Amino acid sequence: MKQIAVLTSGGDAPGMNAAIRAVTRTGIQKGWNIFGVRDGYQGLIEGNMTEMDSRDVSGIIQRGGTFLGSARCEEFKTEAGRREALRSLNENEIDGLVVIGGNGSQTGSFNLFKMGFPVVGVASTIDNDLVGSDITIGVDTALNIALEAIDRLKVTGSSHQRAFLIEVMGRNCGYLALMSAIAGGAETVVIPEVETDPDEIAHILSQAYERGKSHAIVVVAEGAKYNATKLAEFFEKHQERIGFALRVSILGHIQRGGTPSASDRILASRLGAGAVDCLDRGEFGVLVGWVNGKVQTTPLEEVVDKTKQIDLELFDLARKLD
Ligand code: ADP
Predict the structure, then answer these.
(1) Which of 12, 127, 129, 140 is labelled catalytic?
(2) Model confidence pTM above 0.85
(3) How far is CA 77 from the centre of its chain?
(4) Once rounded to an integer, what is the mean pLDDT over residues 107-111?
């Protein structure tokens, strides 16, 4: 290995910069040249990459987002698009590629690996839905942002006897919703993994009202069949049953833009360095993740097209603590 490239792809996650920094600096220490690719796979196809030295990644560890830019690139899903990417990798004499990203991005990296290029993935998504990493870069920060929002909504909810439906991100995975519900002391939680009857939620809210609670919080995962908007539509017709006045708050991209937490910076630094070690020992086509308290690799083949299962005991706990 003499020259490697690094890119960030898909949804950005706080801590991606720390991962780029770790790849760059540990790679330089091995005597390699490191190239930063702009805007994910789009930049790879266009050959939009420049060499980075140690100073180019100074002052970014504390910044959310990704200074290399990220993008969603339909062209890379086609074989012709990936051939173009291979051509520009060869043109720039790149020997190995690190892809920092989530589920879709790692499907892309696996498809490139299958075409014969040495690729290593780094587990990074706020959704925490990747098989091969107990926790992924960005989750801790996103969780803390959701929590801050829940705490604030509780304050205003108490002043007006309101119930809030708070929708958090996570795509088809309920992890962020579940954890923010437990940590935020929500009355209940709605996640894609568990079928939810809106009548049951209405019942939980009316019981909380009758017990004299001054506010109630329902955390709803965006990927749930009844997301916050659909639940609100349902409750509009059953307002008298609930007691509380109802408000909806969709947190959306706010969760992605935070200053990376200490945990995310450390995780990203370890996984970024781990990816460089993988390339160095010739271990390709793997995802570098955090498993059982250690940096570990999982073949990308076992990662793609899957969603990590959540611990349903935590769902029971969230509902017991109302
Ligand atoms: P994330 O990595 O955050 O899950 P996406 O699912 O949007 O984000 O995927 C990011 C990018 O990864 C896509 O825009 C595309 O360029 C690439 N990608 C996704 N799926 C595939 C696939 N099946 N084959 C090749 N590339 C893919």
Answers:
(1) 127
(2) yes
(3) 20
(4) 98
